[in-house]
Specification:
heterotrimer; A mainly alpha; B alpha+beta; C alpha+beta; B: alpha+beta; mini-chromosome maintenance (MCM) complex, domain 2; four-stranded antiparallel sheet; C: alpha+beta; T-fold; eight-stranded antiparallel sheet; three-stranded antiparallel sheet; 9 helices
Chain lengths: ~190, ~120, ~325
Amino acid sequence: MKRTNTEKIALLGVFGALALVLAFLENTLLPDVPLLPPGAKIGLSNIVTVLCSALFGGGYAWYITLLKALFSFLTRGATAGLMSLAGGVLSTLALCLLLKKTDKTVSYLGVGVLCAAAHNLGQLLMSMALTGSLSLFYYGKYLLLFALFSGTLTGLVLCVLLPRLKRTTRFSNIFTKKQNAEQENWR
Amino acid sequence: MKVKKTFFRWGDGVIYFVLVTLCAVLFLLPVLQQNRPLTAVITVGGETVETIDLSAVEAPYTVQYAGCTISVENGAIGFSNADCPDRLCVKTGMLRHAGSAAACVPNRVVVSLRAQTEAFDGVAY
Amino acid sequence: MKQKTKLLSALALLVVVIGAVAAILIFQKQAAPYDLTEKTNIAMDTIVGVKLYGAPSGSEAEAAMNVVTGLEGVISRYKEGSDVYRLNKTGKCKSTLLPVVLTQCKAIEEASNGKFDLSVGAVSALWDFDAETPRLPDDAALQTAKATVDYRKIAVTGDTVAASPGQQLDLGSIGKGLACDMVKQYLTSAGVKGAVVSVGGSILAFGQKSDKKEPWSIAIRHPRRENAFLGYIRLSEGFVSTSGDYERYFEQDGVRYCHLLDATTGYPADSGLCSVTVVCQNGMLSDALSTACYLLGEEASKPLLEANDAAAVFVKTDGAVSTFGDVDFTADES
C-alpha cells in the first residue's frame, strides 16, 4: 500500500530546496578559497542528491539534479546552467550505477568520492566543449585531487546520516516493500 | 541495536585506488612530455620581450604586448586578439610547429617557435 | 657448462667492442657548432629572421636587419622618397639599384612572354588581399590598369630610369630575394661563418654552421596543410624562394584568387600549380623565378630554369609533387 504521490512530491520539494540552499551557501561563503580551478566546490548539495536516491530510489535523484541545473541557469546564466547540468548528469549516473551495490560492495564513502569525481569530470568536459580548448584538460588533475577530498567529506556525512534517517518512521512509510527489506541491512 | 560498521568496504577501496592512481598519473604526465620541446619567442619591434617553454605550460593563459593578446597553451601559442585593422595575426591561428611564426605587423609584434632540437635550419614559404 | 660460459663471455665481449666502436664513431660525427646569434623583426611588411653562426661580434644580426630595412627605403612603392615611389609618381628617377634590377629581370620578363612583369603595379594595386572582405576588382578598372603594364616601355639609361605615363613599378615579387642578396654581401664582408636568413619566407643559406661541412636543411611549407611541411631541401649554400597560392588569397563564389598575378590578364594565374620553390645561387633570381614559374606552369618553366642554372620543386593543385634540376629534395612522408 503505497503512500500517495503528494507526500513524495512534497518531500522532494523540501529536499530540492535544501540542495539549492546548500549550493548557495557553498558559493557565497567559500568562493575565495585559493584553489585554482573554476568549479571546485565541496559539493554539499550532492549530499542531498544521494540522500534522495538512497531513501526513495535511484530515479528520484534526477529531479534534484535537474532542479539544481535549472536554478543555476535562471540565476547565473546559460553557462552556469550547462556546467551544473553536465556535472550533475555524470554524478547522478555514477550514483545510479553504485546504488544497487551499496548494501554489500561499497559504502557511501565511496559513493561520495565517485560522485564528486564524476561531477568534476562532467564540468571539465563541458568547459572544454564550451571553450573548444583541449588544453583545459590540464586542470583535470587538480579537480580530481580536490574531488578525492571533498568526496570523502560528503561521503562521511552520508555514512553518518543515512542509517539514522532510514530508521525514522517518516521515511519508512514512503518505501515500497522492496526498499523496506533493504532497510533491514542498516540496522 | 548496533549500527553495522558501514564506513569502509572493499568497493570503496577499489574506487579510491583507481582515482588516486589516475591522479598520480595525471600529475606525472607533463614530465613525460619532454620529447617535444618547443620554445616560443615573442618580439616587439625586434627586441625579444619574452621566451616561453611551451612544453612546460600547464594551464593556458594570455599575455599582452603592444595591443596584441597572445594565447599560450601547452605546445601552442598564437594571437587571440589585436587592435590592428586587418587582424591577420589572429587569422593565422595557433602555432604548433617549430619554425612557424605569426606577426601583427602594425604593432610590430612577432610570435615565433623554435624547437630546442631543431630539425630544420629554415622554412621557405 | 664451461662451453656455455665461454660462449656467453665471448658474446658479451663482442657486444662491448661493437658498442665502443659505435660510441667512438658517433662521438667523431659530432661537430662543434659555431655560436648562434639570432634576431627577429618586421621589415618590408613581413617577418625577417636572422640566424648567424660564428658572428665575430654581437652586432652583425642587428646590422643584417638594417640592410633589409635600408633596402625597403629604396624599393618600397609605399615609402615616400624611395626610388620606386619617385619613379611611380614622376615617371622618372635616378637610382643606383633599379637599373641593375630592371636589366637583370628583363630576361625573365621576356622569357615569360610578359606574364611576369615588374610594371604590374597599377594592376596589383587594385587587388586588395588584406581587406576585411576582399572582393574581385572591377573588370573595367583592371583593363584600364592593365594597359599601363609593359616592361618594354621602361627605359634604362645609365643611372636613370624612365617609365611611360601611368606605369607603376611593383617589386613585391623580387624584393625579398633581393634583400637576401644584400644580406649575403654584408655577411661576407662582416666575416660571419654561417647564416640562415629568412625574409618573409625567402631564404639565404650561407656558409657553415659548424666546423664540419654539412648541408643546410630548409623545409618547404605545405601549401594546403597548416603547420605541416611538404618536405625539405638540403643545400650547401644558396637561395630558396617559394611562391604559392596560399600566402595571400581570398575565395569568392568558390574560386580562389591568389596574389600571384599574370600581368597579361590582370588576374591571378591559373597554371595548375599551387606552389613552386626555386633554388639558385642568386637571391633576386630565385624570387623572380619562383613567381615566373608559378605563372608559367611546370612545363613552360623548365627552359627558364635551365637558362638560369636553377632548380625547382613544383606542387600541382592535385597534390602531385615533382622536381626539376639539381635539387636535393626529400618529401615528408606523413
